[in-house]
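Hi team,

As requested, here is the filled-out complex form for the pyridoxal-5'-phosphate run. I kept the field names the same as last time so the parser does not choke. Let me know if anything looks off before we queue the next batch.

— J.
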Amino acid sequence: MSTMKVPLLDLRLQYQAFKVELLPILERVYESQGFILGTEVTALESAIAAYSGAAYGVGVSSGTDALLLALMALGIGAGDAVITSPYTFFATGGTIARTGARPIFLDIEPSTYNLSPVALQRFIDEQCTSTDNVLVHRASGARIRALMPVHLYGQMADMTPLMVLARRYGLKVIEDAAQAIGAEYLGGARAGSIGDVGCFSFFPTKNLGAFGDAGLCTAQDAELAELMRVLRVHGGKPKYYHALIGGNFRIDEVQAAVLNVKLRHLEAWTEGRRSNAVAYGELFAAAGLSGTVTTPYAQPGLRHIYNQYVIRVPERDKLKAFLGEQGVGCEIYYPVPLHLQGCFSYLGGTQGDFPESERAAAQTLALPIFPELKHEQLAYVVDAIRRFYG
Ligand SMILES: *Cc1c(COP(=O)(O)O)cnc(C)c1O
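And here is what came back:
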């Protein structure tokens, strides 16, 4: 096969498909010269809440700010701890630390790469004290206030056992749904509709991407949603009167207008990603690579939306370099688990603490999966991998 270019992501084809719809709407925003928190934002908030099966939506400036705002609205800060996965994008742990709270990392399930409910149960049993609905981490003395599961790559964490444990021990639940818009759990509940707050990112590489940075929090509770709205504008209510200290977490009209148009196409794009994943599975099997390449495990009954298509392979770094030479874009999400990041050394994490997260960081590789890919491009990627191992 001759060399072909298969980028990890190319948004230009997608843009061509909706730009006729979008440009008149953008022009209306420009003509209005109303840029912040206007009618496009309000429409987006209702639309994403409805799409996700949540009661409320609060548009914000990024996925990172969505996480930070959720933590702030839940009153999490110094003396508190929040449990999450170490195998995730930095923002998940970074925002916890920025509130003054202590991130507590627990290992993942090797099949789904999501936070392990078994690890959570064991951690509570062995390292915590629970009295009167207050859960304390004995080693640090921190009060554990919340659980922040990540729906990594577009497949939801195992929410039923996680929610049972969270409710039993009085923990709030913040879903990091940055990669999982439209993903479904058993029974069809969507990402962002199960925990107290769901946090979405509209970073351009996410399944629903803006023309810059943007994000959104979903919530089930009216008071919590209202508190997030107030904290989004520096805690001013009424304007210039501050009972609370918030931040500038605003989303703008241009981003909301883009997202409102793109949302109409999201189901079709998601189905495109899902059928590409099926095609990859068939191609890997046909190439005789089933014993070498571990394709993503899509848990039965869940809807995986494949923000990333991540395989697990031997000689990962060499394969990545080879694919680069063959014109195939690929990426490592994520090479260093959070407990081994320099900035978190004060937490005392060491190599060996979370073996499944460390193994995943060493073995996984994301392949191109965006909906506009052609079947021959998928076949070229699989053939390149076959040649590498051949
Ligand atoms: C993208 C992402 C974020 C952060 O979103 P931004 O919009 O880039 O700030 C947080 N968590 C996860 C898991 C992500 O993938």
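Two things worth flagging: Residues 62-64, 88-89, 91-92, 150, 176, 178-179, 201, 203, 213, 215 surround pyridoxal-5'-phosphate (CB under 6 Å). The CA atoms of residues 7 and 311 lie 17 Å apart.

Thanks,
J.
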